[in-house]
Amino acid sequence: MKVARSLIGIGFGLLALLPGIGGAAEADDSVRSLSAWTNQRGSTLYIDNVSASGQLTGTYINRAAGFGCQNTPYPVTGWVLGNAITFTVLWRNAVQSCNSITAWTGFYYQGRITTLWQLVSNGTTSPGQIQQGQDVFTRSGKAEAETQK
């Protein structure tokens, strides 16, 4: 009987992970292709595409005070799974290289993407050298995303 209850609980848990079923966050228009998201530091994530498998591509423009590689687009890759999201920027493009990588991981909820991030520089030798923080992104608008193409 305990096994049956556990399997039923797992089944309901899996249903909750599916968009639009159970109590999970709806897959309304949360993280879609051709959307733009700006964080509290003024930086913008432009999502060009989210494939059927959840792979995310786009660009990121850094405007955070105290960080290099600003005001020019850098390629973004990542994944979306339901309301979970992760994306990464290699801070190197045709204009500039900051010799580092930043990864954001978080979730979409109530119109915001809330993330924790970590920035690591080439040559880092200790976890204490990895910078970290939190960003909250709000939708900037589809029209703004389209102007970046």
Automatic annotation (TrEMBL):
- The transmembrane residues are none
Could you confirm whether the keyword Nucleotide-binding appears in this record? no
Keyword Secreted belongs to the record: yes
Quote the biased-composition stretches of kind Polar residues, using this chain's numbering. 125-137
Where in the cell is the protein located? Secreted
Chain segments carrying region Disordered: 125-149
Which keywords does this chain's UniProt record carry? Secreted, Signal
Q: Which Pfam families match?
A: Avidin
Q: What is this protein called?
A: Avidin/streptavidin family protein
Q: Which organism is it from?
A: Chitiniphilus purpureus
